[in-house]
Write a structure and sequence with these properties.
Elements: E1 3-7, E2 10-13, E3 18-25, E4 33-39, E5 46-52, E6 58-60, E7 68-73, E8 78-83, E9 92-99, E10 119-120, E11 124-129
Parallel strand pairs: 2-11
Antiparallel strand pairs: 1-3, 3-8, 4-5, 4-9, 5-6, 7-8, 9-10, 9-11
């Protein structure tokens, strides 16, 4: 059974940094991808970033490019989201999701399409104060 556990959220001032972690369990091979999504109150869920364990390919939403960095430690089956220069508009519940099989995000036309993801973890709250 695949399980995802997100952690690392918190309260930070604008301009600050946080690192989120998504620990995955239950995968038997590195043919999966993990994405971070976020949902702010009254807004639709949006994709933030994703990484493929198969080939290390990554994608980012335009709103976070240059500020967020996604990385993975396949030995630990953990994906990290380093968030720098945080803005109040980054405030949201952040959740990680996984899709499998995955052979690289370069093959995926719309990598943040939620039906692509089979497994979802509980979110972690990120609050950025101005």
């Amino acid at each position: 059974e695949v399980q995802l556990q997100a952690s690392g959220g918190g309260l930070v001032q604008a301009g600050g940094s946080l690192r989120l972690s998504c620990a995955a369990s239950g995968f038997t091979a590195d043919n999966y991808a993990i994405a971070w999504f976020r949902q702010a109150p009254g807004k639709e869920r949006e994709g933030v970033s994703a990484i493929s364990a198969a080939d290390g390919s990554t994608v980012y939403a335009d709103s976070v490019k240059g500020r967020f960095t996604i990385s993975s430690d396949n030995a630990k089956s953990t994906v990290y989201l380093e968030m720098n220069n945080l803005k109040p508009e980054d405030t949201a519940i952040y959740s990680c999701a996984a899709r499998s099989p995955d052979y690289g995000l370069g093959h995926v036309i719309r990598p943040f399409l939620t039906p692509l993801y089979d497994y979802w973890g509980r979110g972690t709250q990120v609050t950025v104060s101005s």
